[in-house]
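Quick review question:
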């Protein structure tokens, strides 16, 4: 349910399950940080990543800004300067501390950020424990905030991996447990074929979704085929060794420019040691697993590989329709927040976000929410591409076939992979 759709009712009591969900997600964020050293909390290697400490504070700022300040009577902020320091991009709220300088925020300390989280948690608990005339709207905002925090839980893993990966010591985030991976040989990629059809796209349920997943609408699909698994590291190595990064005919113009300017020769985190490819993982530097889906590739690299392989990337509508029909499965494999290097299935189809060829824009009839909360998705609908699915670091319960992730085509630090598609013949 979107905030716009909320109507007031005579019920002034909050659902107790809502507070339980809030506490569970808040605790999960803190638990994810347990392997960190104190010095790790402030790392920010590039502007696209944020320090762990900032993620922990910003998610608290969200609940404070959009729920406590307008709906908690006589609410007193713990620190009035946090409104500026931990605002991400909400111009309707006020100015923001520069994103690229978040790593300079040695203060507040980690202890003070944790105190801030506890303070906000206590105030939210008190708010939900009392009657309110705004139960429906607060419930909608709190649910949005819970899903917002889950997004930042995923960003925690992507950002800390990148930040630690800049250290020449290649530190281990957490030790790898013994692998239970099957040793079956990975077979050739197969394809599911779909006939032309007028299909329903977008979220049509009654539970939570982000505003960019609506409205549900009809879309005409031409016949297409979509791969039954993601491209593997071994298959991608063939692309590398056959000169894929040296042959401009496979690349979009902007992609070829990125290859030349940034010196790309392999996926992010890969390096060759004694003629063997290795990659930096959350468990340190490990040999590349040839049967694991290739990870940390940009849309440019995904498109170039598809062109080299005689295929293309799917549109987001093709991807969603295939998922609706049960041909893109594996959500149960993500229940334990496995990193890609720990995937237990040789074909681990859905362990990565999957690039599509679709530009990120609003669906027909999309309307931006009123107020600052409307800045959540709508204002980013330009110059980005849609990714579908979910990744091995996506929080449990935070994925669905209609979910639309979006990034700039040159970005590689997300857990992103490649699913091929072809025109139906």
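Suggested answer, residue by residue:
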């Amino acid at each position: 349910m979107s905030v716009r759709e909320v109507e007031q009712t005579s019920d002034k009591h909050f659902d107790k399950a809502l507070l339980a969900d809030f506490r569970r997600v808040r605790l999960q964020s803190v638990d994810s940080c347990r392997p960190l050293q104190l010095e790790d909390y402030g790392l920010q290697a590039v502007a696209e990543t944020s320090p762990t400490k900032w993620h922990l504070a910003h998610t608290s700022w969200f609940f404070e800004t959009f729920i406590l300040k307008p709906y908690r009577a006589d609410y007193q902020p713990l620190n009035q300067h946090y409104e500026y320091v931990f605002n991400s991009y909400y111009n309707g709220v006020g100015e923001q501390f520069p994103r690229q300088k978040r790593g300079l925020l040695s203060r507040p300390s980690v202890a003070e950020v944790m105190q801030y989280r506890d303070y906000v948690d206590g105030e939210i608990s008190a708010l939900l424990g009392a009657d309110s005339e705004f139960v429906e709207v607060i419930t909608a905002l709190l649910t949005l905030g819970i899903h917002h925090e889950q997004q930042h839980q995923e960003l925690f893993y992507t950002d800390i991996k990148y930040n630690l990966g800049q250290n020449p010591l290649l530190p281990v985030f957490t030790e790898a447990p013994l692998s239970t991976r099957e040793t079956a040989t990975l077979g050739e990629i197969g394809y599911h074929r779909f006939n032309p059809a007028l299909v329903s796209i977008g979220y049509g349920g009654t539970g939570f979704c982000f505003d960019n997943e609506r409205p549900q609408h009809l879309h005409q699909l031409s016949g297409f085929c979509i791969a039954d698994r993601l491209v593997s590291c071994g298959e991608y190595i063939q692309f590398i060794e056959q000169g894929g990064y040296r042959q401009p005919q496979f690349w979009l113009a902007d992609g070829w420019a990125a290859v030349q300017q940034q010196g790309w020769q392999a996926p992010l985190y890969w390096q060759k040691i004694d003629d063997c490819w290795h990659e930096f993982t959350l468990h340190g530097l490990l040999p590349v697993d040839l049967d694991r889906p290739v990870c940390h590739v940009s849309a440019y690299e995904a498109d170039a590989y598809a062109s080299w392989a005689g295929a293309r990337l799917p549109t987001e509508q093709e991807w969603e329709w295939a998922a609706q029909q049960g041909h893109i499965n594996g959500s149960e494999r993500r229940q334990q927040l496995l990193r890609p290097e720990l995937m237990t299935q040789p074909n681990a189809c859905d362990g990565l976000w999957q690039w599509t060829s679709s530009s990120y824009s609003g669906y027909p009839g999309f309307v931006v929410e009123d107020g600052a909360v409307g800045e959540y998705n709508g204002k980013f609908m330009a110059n980005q591409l849609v990714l579908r699915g979910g990744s091995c670091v996506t929080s449990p319960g935070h994925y669905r076939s209609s979910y639309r992730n979006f990034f700039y085509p040159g970005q590689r630090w997300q857990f992103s992979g490649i699913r091929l598609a072809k025109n139906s013949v």
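Why it works: The chain is about 30% helix and 10% strand. Residues 16-165 form one domain.
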